[in-house]
Amino acid sequence: MFDWLANPNRFKKSTNKLEPLLMVISLLFIIFGLYFSLFDSPKDYQQGDAVRIMYVHVPSAWLASFLYLSLAVSSIFYLVWKHPLADLISSSIAPIGALFSILTLITGSLWGKPMWGTWWVWDARLTSMLILFFFYLGFILLHNAFERKIDGSKSASVLAIIGLINLPIIKFSVDWWHTLHQPSSILKFDGPSIDNQMLIPLSFMIIGFGLFSLYLIIINVKTKLIEKKCEALILKLNLKEIL
Amino acid sequence: MNSIHSSWSNIFIAHIKRDILTNSRSLLDLISIVGLMILIIILFPLGLGPIKEKLNVVSNAVIWVGLILAIIPSLEKLLLKDFENGWLDQIATSPAPLEIIMLSKAISYWLIMLIPLILTSPIFAILLDMDLKNIPWLVISISAGSLAISLIGLSGSALILGARRGNILLPILIIPLMTPILIFGVGVNEAVKINESPFGNLFLLLALTLIYLVISPFISALLVRIAIGR
To answer: How far apart are CA A112 and CA A127, in angstroms?
Structure first.
């Protein structure tokens, strides 16, 4: 299946139909999710209206880690099977993941001020999320730092795989070190400890954010494919002039 | 089988000898690394004010942070010289495994650059007014963690081979990787300060060092092969 999709033309054809569909569905999910979360979900008995920050904070945090996982997986695909498309996908994922991790940190600190009384604490989860952002940043910088682009792609892929160590630290940091950040309340062995009235808008937002970032990634990959084609065309023209 | 092993160890020792010899010809790198460490240490009493209680609290962390920051400029040149003059190309075509050579690079870097810092660390500790009972543990924790630091540094130095402005890129790439070493390394002495057993953090630090000892030569060899394009 991966070999089948790894052909750029086939990728383009199959995503041409998917792309508008993804945009519409993800926007629907986000609009409904926002309506439910902002107007039609209960206040928290302790936190009041401030709990509504959760509906942006949690999806972006999940996506920041999930996108890193997909970045590392596509990097492995690139290093092992050398599909050029895998490199395009990982370089398209990186800026989006970096944005989501920044969004997580910003919404988190906006939430932390009224609840914890501080914008920032050096809590294990906050720090590991900040380090995740620096792995994204390192990936983007290293990817663009080489004269020969293929070297940059390979080195950055290796860096992405090294950075995978950080993901379990983010996930389990709240269980290993009992600090200010609250423990997980959705992905638990004995089922979610969050009420359905909050869980439903939250899952709407998570699905909406996920589909929307998939849509952005597809657009990014397509743009990069066109860029590559243009480069190849220019090279061809130059070659003809020389000959 | 035995002859293969002995030849690998011969290669390993020969490369360490070569690195020590080439570095001993000019002591400039060593002087600059120790000098940078001293300058970083000096900045803290100037910034915090020369109050003994304050310095005592931060001394442990300052020495660790200083160690990590002081070696970064020298890490950049760890593989770059050999890359630019073609030595790495030559070595990669030889039948000797590149992983062994990378390991010898990390070990020789540790011997040349980090051993002097370990030996001088008690002086820095006294300058920063650390309690006397903490100083042996500082030396032990730095000895345990510094090999991991040089192994990570080797991978970082292999990452930027051939990159434009690699010297700016290097700290961004390797400081996130060094955070676990810093956390457990500082933890050893913080445990001693509150009269608890330091061995929990020390063993975790040693475990991290062993993990990097296994992983880092392979990653570095892979990156060197990418950089020289084979």
So the answer is: 14
Place of tokens 């972006």: A60
pLDDT at B209: 93
DSSP states of A118-143: SS----HHHHHHHHHHHHHHHHHHHH
CB A181 within 8 A of CB A174: yes
Decide: B125 and B104 in contact? Cβ < 8 Å.
no
Contacts 24+ apart (CB under 8 A), B58-63: B58/B128, B59/B125, B59/B128, B59/B129, B59/B130, B60/B130, B60/B134, B60/B138, B60/B186, B60/B189, B60/B190, B60/B193, B61/B186, B62/B128, B63/B121, B63/B124, B63/B125, B63/B128, B63/B138, B63/B142
Per-residue pLDDT at A100 exceeds 80:
yes
Q: Touching check for B178 and chain A: CB below 8 Å?
A: no
The identity of residue A223, as a single letter, is: T
Q: Do B226 and A158 touch (CB under 8 A)?
A: yes
Determine contact: B165 vs chain A, CB below 8 A. yes
Distances (CA, A) of B118 to A205, B129, B193: 52, 17, 20
Span of A39-43, B104-108, B134-138, B153-157 with lowest mean pLDDT:
A39-43
Distance to chain A for B2, nearest Cα, Å: 33
Shortest Cα distance, chain B CAs vs residue A54, angstroms: 27
Distance CA B73, CA B36 (A): 10
Q: Which residues pair with A236 in a beta bridge?
A: none
CB contact under 8 A, A146 and B163: yes
10 Å CB burial of residue B206 (0-12, 13-18, 19+) is: middle
The per-residue pLDDT for range B14-69, each reduced to its tens digit, is 889 998 888 888 788 888 899 999 999 989 889 888 888 888 888 899 999 999 99
Domain boundary assignment for chain A: 27-182+193-242
Global pTM? Answer: 0.86
